[in-house]
Design brief:
With 101 residues, the protein is an all-alpha fold. The protein is built from 4 helices and no strands.
């Protein structure tokens, strides 16, 4: 039985979930500024999410490398090796964001 959701639907959902989770952690961090226990909990939660996303990212990079398109399609416009998730705001460094604030 085929999956009801397409890969594109899942990718869109992942992007939405990542954005929502980032916003929630940002709000929690703002509220926990003076609470070391809450700050530690946010640190651990953010670390767990980071580890999951990093592992998925590395697996997807391996899949892309295994597809061989980057090397075999030099004359064709292949997708970039890394597409920055600019809609999530991850294209900016923390230092640039803190300087702008």
């Amino acid at each position: 039985m085929p999956d009801a959701r397409s890969d594109a639907d899942l990718a869109t959902e992942l992007e939405s979930l990542s954005l929502e989770l980032t916003r929630r952690l940002d709000r929690k961090a703002e509220l926990a500024k003076d609470d070391p226990v809450a700050s530690d909990e946010i640190f651990v939660e953010a670390g767990n999410v980071y580890a999951v996303l990093q592992a998925a990212s590395e697996r997807l990079r391996d899949l892309r490398d295994g597809a061989g398109r980057a090397n075999s399609c030099a004359s064709v416009f292949a997708p970039p090796a890394m597409s920055p998730p600019t809609r999530l705001g991850f294209s900016r460094s923390r230092s640039a964001v803190s300087r702008a604030a």
